[in-house]
Design goal:
With 484 residues, this protein is mostly helical. Strand 1 and strand 2 (37-38) form a beta hairpin. The protein has helices at residues 4-26, 45-48, 50-65, 68-75, 78-95, 102-105, 112-130, 133-150, 152-172, 174-190, 198-201, 204-216, 218-230, 232-249, 252-257, 260-276, 280-296, 300-308, 312-326, 329-345, 347-366, 369-387, 391-395, 400-420, 422-429, 431-441, 444-454, 456-483; strands at 33-34, 37-38. It has a two-stranded antiparallel ribbon. The protein is rod-shaped and about 185 Å long. The protein contains 28 helices and 2 strands. Among the domains are: 50-99 and 399-455, no CATH class; 166-344, no CATH class.
Length: 484
């Protein structure tokens, strides 16, 4: 009994002491007073330090347990990646056996409003992107690189072919000749009262170009004059004109002895002989340029009135002769070469004008209401076809390689979101504050029950540990007495 009683007393004291200490963590819930004086150790430790504990726990959870980096690492872990890959693969496999369309799957829900809203937003988004300067710049850059840098020679060749086709059609078409005459008649009538000189109407650049062409092609021009003068109809017209001039300027008495027709014959033959000589080819440029200068000094109205006196048949004959000479096979080749040379010499200017025109037209088209309506129509047809197509038809060509690519694209987007947006979103949540407020919102009795439920075994072990230590202390007392 000497040893048992101290052990029992010490054990009971130790057990009760630890039990009371644990209870004092939670109780009393409020501060207690005796005779107006506060009782020590009231309220319990947890009720007393509740706000400080809540703040500390919140900061610990927010800064260490659920920090942005911890959440990012968890969401981008190998386990999560494998789960996402398996989920994508299993859903595509399921869709390959689904013969219903999206419209059929959603027929029980009111999706029309959502679909119309999506149509409008998608059309607005497409138009917004296409109306950006960057899109126009890319189109113009593509045209410049593909057309002007890569296919310019093909374009020149195509232009040459079209010019040859047009010239051939021009040389064979009587309708075109009639239209040229009609155009001349119309414009001559309009210009009959114009008091300006020709050189004031025609640009200096064009006059210079004509003079250069005269000197360059004076041999061809000489041949053209020869061909014209060999034409019997032209010969008759020229002789008639010369005879008429002589009749107007010669004395009637003298006309009895000298025939105007004979003089006209002599003059025409002299002109033709001169034209047939080879030296005319050297003089033709000088003669025509001098004639051109004289012509440019004439008034527009006078020239129009003079030309309008010629009858339609004569004008058709003159145009026909000129066209037949100009548009023979050899001359057509020279015309095409001339146009090709002019185009190539002005290539930089043509490119700038074309690209500027393209940019201007793109601005007008992209900002037009018609363009927006067409985009809406295209989006509408696309979505209608999409939602009414069986799901298995939409995914039938999706293989493992495409699944991996889809997964990788999703993960790239997800990773970009994690890096750029998740820290900001977590910051907006303010996890530390959420945890702190949540703990403070709990009833203290609920907190007590929660902690006891979580640490019930540990708290009981601490209580019994107090009893054990008390028993050991009770054993030490008689042992120490025996030593004495």
């Amino acid at each position: 009994m000497r040893f048992i009683i101290p052990i029992l007393v010490g054990g009971i004291i130790g057990y009760i002491t630890n039990w009371i200490a644990i209870k004092m963590l939670f109780r009393p819930h409020d501060k207690k007073f005796f005779l107006g004086l506060p009782i020590p150790f009231t309220p319990g430790l947890i009720p007393k330090e509740r706000k400080r504990l809540a703040k500390t726990i919140g900061e610990t959870v927010g800064d260490h347990l659920l920090s942005p980096q911890v959440i990012m690492d968890s969401l981008y872990s190998h386990h999560m990646r494998e789960y996402m890959k398996t989920w994508i693969r299993s859903n595509f496999s399921r869709l390959k056996g689904e013969d219903r369309s999206l419209a059929q799957l959603m027929e029980d829900s009111n999706y029309d409003g959502l679909l119309n809203s999506f149509r409008r937003k998608l059309a607005d988004f497409i138009c917004f992107q296409l109306r950006k300067d960057r899109f126009r710049e890319r189109i113009i850059g593509f045209v410049e690189a593909s057309v002007f840098n890569s296919f310019i020679d093909d374009i020149y060749g195509l232009i040459g072919e079209k010019v040859e086709e047009y010239l051939y059609h021009l040389s064979k078409s009587q309708e075109i000749r009639e239209r040229i005459v009609d155009l001349l008649d119309h414009n001559l009538n309009k210009l009959a009262n114009d008091e300006r000189r020709l050189e004031d109407v025609v640009s200096a650049e064009y006059i210079h170009m004509v003079k250069e062409s005269i000197y360059k092609y004076e041999k061809d021009i000489a041949n053209l004059v020869r061909i014209i003068l060999r034409d019997p109809k032209i010969e008759m017209k020229v002789k008639k004109s010369i005879s008429h001039i002589i009749n107007q300027n010669i004395n009637k008495a003298l006309a009895i002895f000298i025939s105007p027709d004979m003089i006209a014959e002599k003059v025409f033959n002299a002109i033709r002989e001169y034209v047939e000589e080879s030296k005319i080819e050297r003089d033709m440029g000088f003669i025509l340029v001098a004639a051109l200068d004289k012509l440019l000094e004439c008034k527009v109205g006078y020239m129009a009135e003079t030309l309008s006196k010629y009858d339609r048949k004569y004008m058709l004959s003159f145009i026909d002769t000129g066209l037949n000479y100009i548009l023979d096979k050899e001359k057509q080749g020279k015309i095409v070469d001339f146009i090709d040379g002019k185009l190539k010499s002005q290539e930089a200017s043509i490119k700038d004008i074309t690209l500027s025109f393209l940019d201007q037209q793109l601005r007008i088209i992209l900002n037009s209401e018609e363009f927006y309506e067409n985009i809406n129509l295209g989006v509408d047809k696309f979505l209608e076809g999409l939602i009414n197509k069986p799901l298995l038809a939409l995914v039938e060509n999706v293989d493992e390689y495409m699944i991996i690519n889809i997964f990788q694209n999703i993960m790239d987007i997800f990773n970009d979101f994690l890096i750029k947006k998740l820290p900001e979103i977590i910051g907006l949540f303010n996890i530390s504050k959420v945890v702190e407020d949540q703990i403070n919102s709990y009833d203290i009795e609920f907190v007590e029950e929660l902690i006891i439920e979580i640490a019930d075994r540990e708290l009981k072990a601490i209580t019994w540990l107090g009893g054990l230590l008390g028993g050991i202390m009770g054993l030490l007392t008689p042992l120490l007495q025996m030593i004495k």
